[in-house]
Amino acid sequence: xxxSCHCRSDGLPQQQVHQRWRWESALAVSVSSCRDSxxxxxxxMYILTAFHxxxxxxxxxxxxxxxxxxxxxxxxxQGIAKASEQNLKRTFQYGGRAQYPNTMELKAMLAGxxxxxxxxxxxxxxxxxxxxxxxxxxxxxxEELCFEMGLQRLEALDEYAVFLVTHKGNSNSFNRPLKNQxxxxxxxxxxxNKHKLY
Length: 198
Fold this sequence. Notes:
Blueprint: H1 2-9, H2 11-30, H3 35-51, H4 59-71, H5 78-94, H6 103-110, E1 115-122, E2 126-133, H7 138-148, H8 154-157, E3 162-166, E4 174-178, H9 186-192
Antiparallel strand pairs: 1-2, 3-4
Helix pairs in contact: 1-2, 2-3, 3-5, 4-5
């Protein structure tokens, strides 16, 4: 968490962290006794790519490195390399998560768990649990629900929305549409503003 906070405060160190991580992970992969260290390095990369952009100059090199690592059948940690690549692409598309993970989410990520099941209430009182990843946004949920309903046209996706509803049944109820926001940040917003989530 300190590394992530340090990266957020200065633009330059985050570039150095990405570069140093690439160098150290390549070195750790070549030394089999450093397996635990390599695993921790990949988990750190997963977290960094979810929260921080690298420079435009470094982006193609970092993406190429992650693609090579995820596509090489002999390479260890293919799954987390692919997830880190997806995180980096999402970070450039949506700007990266603005709020750092809470202690519980950070511990889960460091333990290798990058998703959680989230309850969604659909019209008619239907409850549906979906797997939410570190970089899942509201449009991902809409797309998944539409796919399950057999709606695969892009126009159909625009007809649906996800709302954050707090204080249900209260005159102080708060409805907020979510579009391209990171889902894992929504509970942090709710807790920070002392809302109840429904």
